[in-house]
Amino acid sequence: MQPSPAQPRSAQPRVTAVLVTANGGEHLDRTLDALVAQTRHPDNLVVVDVGSTDGSTAELALGGSAGLVRLPAGRPFGEAVAAGEREAPTAEVGDGSETAPDEWLWLLGHDNAPAPTALAEMLSAVEIAPSVVVAGPKLVDTDDPSRIRAFGETTTRGGRSLALVQDELDQGQHDRHTDVMGVSAAGMLVRRSVWRELRGFDPALPDVDAALDLCIRARLAGHRVAVVPEARVTSAGPIEEFGRKRVSEGRRVRLHRQAELHRRLTYAPAGLLWLHWLLLVPTAVVRALGHLVAKHPAAVTGELAAALAVAFGGGVRRARANAARTRRVGWAAIEPLRVSWRRVHEHRTTSRDVELARVEDAPIARASFLGDGGVWVVLAAAVLSVVTLYPLLGSPAVTGGGLLPLSTSVGRLWQNVGYGWHSIGTGSTGPSDPFAAVLAVLGSITAWSPSTSVVVVLLLAFPLSALGAWFVVRKVTTRTWVPVVGAALYTIAPTLVGAVTTGHLGAVIAHVLLPWLVLAVLEAHRSWAWASGASLLFAVVAASAPSLLPVLLVGWVVSLAVGWRRAHRRVFIPVPAAVLFLPLVLAQVARGNPLAVFADPGVPSATRAPSALQLAIGQPLPDWSGWLPATSPLGLAATVLPVAMAVLALPVVLLAVGALLGHRWAVAGAALLLALLGYATAFGATHLTVTGVGSTSTIVWPGSALSVMALGIVLAASIGIDVLPRTAPAAALVAAVFAGVAVTPAFAASTLGDTLLQPTTGRVLSAYVNAEAQANPDVGTIVVEPQTDGSLAVSLERGQGSTLDDQTTLDSTALRLSRSGAQLATLAGNLASRSGYDPEPALRELGISFVLLDDGPSADAAQQVHDRAAGAIGQDARFTSIGETTSGRLFHYEGDVDRVSTGSAATQATHVLYLVVLGVVFGAAALLAVPTAPRRRRATSNVIEAEEPATTFDEERDE
Fold first, then answer.
1. 14-246, which class in CATH?
2. What stretch(es) of the chain map to CATH 3.90.550.10?
3. How many CB atoms lie within 10 A of CB 382?
4. Mean pLDDT, to the nearest integer, of 677-682?
5. Of the ranges 253-262, 363-372, 410-419, 684-693, which one carries the lowest mean pLDDT score?
């Protein structure tokens, strides 16, 4: 018999290793050595250098079947692999005695050092499974090979890519799963013919999901993808970090989201493609808000950039055409390989448990608010507030000092915010005070009666100050009772009492919020919630007390310098305040009066400057917290009172300075520097006169800066008490008692009738004017008030009268009268005296229908001016006397007047645009400031308690 012809021998698979490097000097030598150590060597090696500048490939000697390709820097991994594949030689077909060998591409990065048997294991796996055209190894950590970096990839039902295994300890628990949807590019073994058929990686996926997309297209072409658990390859990081020193959070989000959106459009049915495209940008906006709520502000720009890049960047049409060209099976073929929602939920739960464990393992709080006296000091402050301000209880509004009622509608409150028309005086167009935004928010809380919010703030000032001080003192002390002392000292500070009794609402708000601001800045490095909360508090404090701007900015700069390693969150703290103040700053600079930015908001009121000694003791007024009028009959005010007040302040000062001798001297020193900065600002405020009050000018209220000094002194004194040995309780008691005695008359101001605050119904002008204002909201009332020096103070009220939110420092700090202001002054002067002046043109142009002659002070010169003005106006036939009102004598002008302008269309559009900007900036900050935390998941057990494992040696945790 003739022997049968010999069967052709199967050829050995041919492997070309494509090694991509980009500044990989730290890993490249190790990877090359690992290739040399392979038990099954690759037949060819192509090294692709992507613009390396570290010299890692400068002296690379390659010969024989190895080659080197150089590409410019910045080229993606997929393009580098394609260049290497083109450079690699193609296997030749034999003479007929053997078939053409299989060709495979082995894709490696400079950090992918394979184990000695990695290539052999993968070739064995594909040899016994011919349908597998893409195989992937188990990627392990470069420094800890026992930890899995990545092992297989898949997608959710919504298309989001997900690693099947990531950052887990390798115990062989996943080795039984080999059939997967996709594998990582690092270490991928792919049949060369399939690579060419699929045209390699999608150019529109330069980094993230390029390998996953290739594997999905391979499966849709009828092939299989598998992982080989026996093959191990190292990896130093995800693909988006390849060749980069650092990848920001925003860039990482953009890369992943852009890849997901691109794949979504590529795989979408033709009928739904336009719907997906139209929803790209709207969905991105909604997701950006979600990132803000989830405290990931850096992801906002990445989310929006990804949507815009996919929507208008192109690449989808080519990707869809390429996928359709090679597709052989439907999506049902890979549906079983998608990850289930249950698995996604387990992944999220695991991540949440890790975060919860981190929160639970944080240091235990030093003091409990409920158990260590915090709640009691707040309640005591609330009782003190009720006793001190009992006349305000039940009152819908308050007036006096720097206070007026607010507008009666929320819409009017917000109309006075930002750039626009302001009706105060003769009316003007310009920016409002930043404090107007604070008032608008407060008034919106009690929308049914906006002025009630001011009463509530005054009543809650003392307990809220105690609450904030308790928490910030707890931050710097260890003894559980010390925060109670610190809270008490800060609550009874003369600055707060003086601000409340004189109606400086902005100073009251600043005093209340300063402890929270300090606490938020200290914690800002921990989370975006704290940082955003600090930015909001910074803006509110600055708007309420502009004189604190230097202190706030210095404190911010110091916090950046001290915590420079984590300064990325603190750096944005002043942004909301800058948006609030920028229009006003530009307006004041344009007027040549930049220092007017520091003027106090609210009703201008004359403030007498305290001495340097009074400032050092924390007295914002020269009346020594009410002791001066109480002791003046004794004749001891000039000599004894300063000494007595200094002695009363001495215990707190000694404790504060003594804290420098303890082991926490650095924190105490920082607190004392804060106090010194507050004192310097208060001293400067007493020498800054930018606000006009009648015919004179007044200083900036120094109490806000003294609140900063008080907080610094209290923090340092609390640390001093905390580090004292056995005498700490006695020292704390003496300091608190002495401080309480120093401000006792101030707290009794309401009882003694020395307070400027007066409860009111919210009506500024008489009922007659109010009735007229119902029909004509812009009706004008000229108010003429005699002065003690024989002059007249004149103002123009619109509608129901000036309100607190109407006030603007652009008017109170004006360096010169406007044309309409001069016209108003001329009109008032001639109305108050008999002359040949015809007031009708001015009355008509200014829209004035009423004249209110205020009773004025009881001085002889003022009474003479009052009587002369009453006679002159009363004898003018054009005016009808309405009669006496609670504010003075009212006259009605019987002639016709013009309707005043309320601003042009451009002004109104600018006002709306500015409100939108404020809404975006503060809305984003508010969303970030809302705290989010994982909910505690409590495990349930069916085991009887007695049979459960003993917990004797478990670590205790204070819940």
1. alpha beta
2. 14-246
3. 17
4. 93
5. 363-372
